[in-house]
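Homework help board

Subject: predicted structure for assignment chain

Our instructor gave us this sequence and asked us to write out the predicted structure in token form, then describe one feature. I got the tokens but I'm not sure how to describe them. Can anyone check?
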Amino acid sequence: PGDEGYASSWPQALRGAQALTGPVRRIDLSVLYEVARLLYDGPWVAERYAVMQPLLEARPEAVDAVVKRVVEAARAHDAAAAFRAQYRLRELAREAAAIWREVDVLMLPTAPACPTRAAVAAEPIARNSELGRYTNFVNLLGWAALALPAGFTERGLPFGVTFIAPGGSDAALAELGAHWQAQRRLPLGAHLGDASDDEFTLTSRIAAEPTLPLAVVGAHLEGLPLHGQLVERRCTLRERTRTAPRYRLHALPGTQPPKPGLARVDGGGSAIEVEVYDMPQAELGSFLALIPPPLGLGSIELVSGEWVKGFICEPWALRDAPDISTHGGWRAYLGAQ
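My token output:
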């Protein structure tokens, strides 16, 4: 029961996502639905019962009848059931984590329908369970989610989507949400009018955890052999840009996979293509351990004048390394071979 216009609103939201983020794909959500069933059919309701037990025993008439029915279902679960559910949740969480090897973020309807008051009154538990169909698994998995407006149905009812990402992705979701709202250009509310550009813009970057901006210049660029090392460490792309015009790029002989070496020069430098990623500081140590000589991390000046950490090369390794600076970057050099 609810507004059938939600079904026709979803394709429009998908088109908006594709315009904002690039290609989208469908994935199997069955493991997430199983996690959600644990929330409603498992022993987690006992946590609510533990809080409400004194009131239920002393003044049961003070509790809403529907809430009382839901919470008292905890009496059907014992300690063994709680442990079994925890073990099952860990199994499902491992399966669900595989989703993030396929996609960066999930977009789902915030709710499958907008039920009428009469429908809720007739079957309140069923209707509320349906409303959480696409989100009930988020808390149990410890993931991050952000609900956003997406438009209106033909009947004028609001339709929304929820972006879901791994735990700790709150900052990235906030930035994605700001871009989404700027793209949709929806009014702030029925009586608040349209939003200004300033209201669609985040005035500062939000940090969910301490990060370090890291410029990569070679095999760690997106689509190249070592980019997976950044993905494994939960790095997020900050920008594609160039160095200040004070660098030379060389093709290092005998490296596998092939790698370039970047060096700052006093004169005759070029602006070299780089990608700047935000790397969680907690991941930096394991990343450093993977960097072979003659490469290392140092400070690099970007074309904007900002200094960030990035890949540099020891001078001795550049003596017999061809200078490929005229290509403007490692990707262009590979494409010319």
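Reply (TA_rk): Your tokens look well-formed. For the description, you could write something like this. The first helix runs from residue 5 to 21. That's the kind of observation they're looking for.
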